[in-house]
Amino acid sequence: MCTSASRNWLVGVCSLKPEPKETPGPNQLPIEMLREVLSYLPPRMLIRHCRLVCRRWRDVVDDWDLWRSILPWKHPNLWPVIRTCLPPADNPGPCILGRFCERRPIGRNLLRSPRGLGGSQKWTVLSREDDWTEEKENLEVMPRAYMQTSFLSSYRRYHKKQVLDLEKEGLWRELLDSGNIEICVSDWRNDRQGIDCIYQLTVHLLDANQAILDHFSPLPFPIRRGRNSVSSRASHVFSNIKKGVRFVSFERHIWDLEFRNEQYGVCLMNSTVFVRVCLP
Q1: Which of 6, 29, 47, 158 could pair with 153 in a Cys bridge, judged by C-beta atoms 3.0 to 4.6 Å apart?
Q2: What is the value of pTM for the model shown?
Q3: Where is each FBA domain found (predicted)?
């Protein structure tokens, strides 16, 4: 009995396996090393995925120091200017620099649905809803315009507006007020209609209360019936921008001078609003 019990005990002892050692994970790294590892990931992944892993990771992703280390090598051309007007490091909540790296607002068209793709989404329609339509056609007179979607004005009046919040797009106040940026706007149209009409583009730069600080509004342009198909572009560059600009209001307005129950209006092919940094 004793021998049997002893053997059973010995067998039990031999069958015990040592506890496996825990493999070191990212959360066991010092905060400086974790920040270094995360800095190599794409900004979109950091904000949309890594930030949700745990509180420690969220604090690192929200930290000013992480994005301060990312900016010089993600935006080497812009860094000499950006470094002179960085936002404060003690801003609460997600870091503003992270939104800049994710959204990449410099040189990107900030307008949504600029050619009518998706209809009037993101545009405020200030005329009747049936005063416009969309179409696809081959406009070879405009570079890279093959079979693109465009807005087509019709039925008396066309009036659309889009207001861009520059801070939501990824810019910050110190950069906007630095005097180192320009705002470039343009609008392409194709005058291939069968009626007389008037075209006008109006762009306003607005402050935080949406009061007008600057504007571009050329004289209304008359488009006469019977002209051949001609592509035209209205454009302007806002430089030496006043301090306080926070919004850009972009409006297209077309008046048909006669009524026809057909779609003979102006084809509005593309619009752009983009911000550029004035490099030294």
Answers
A1: 158
A2: 0.78
A3: 100-277
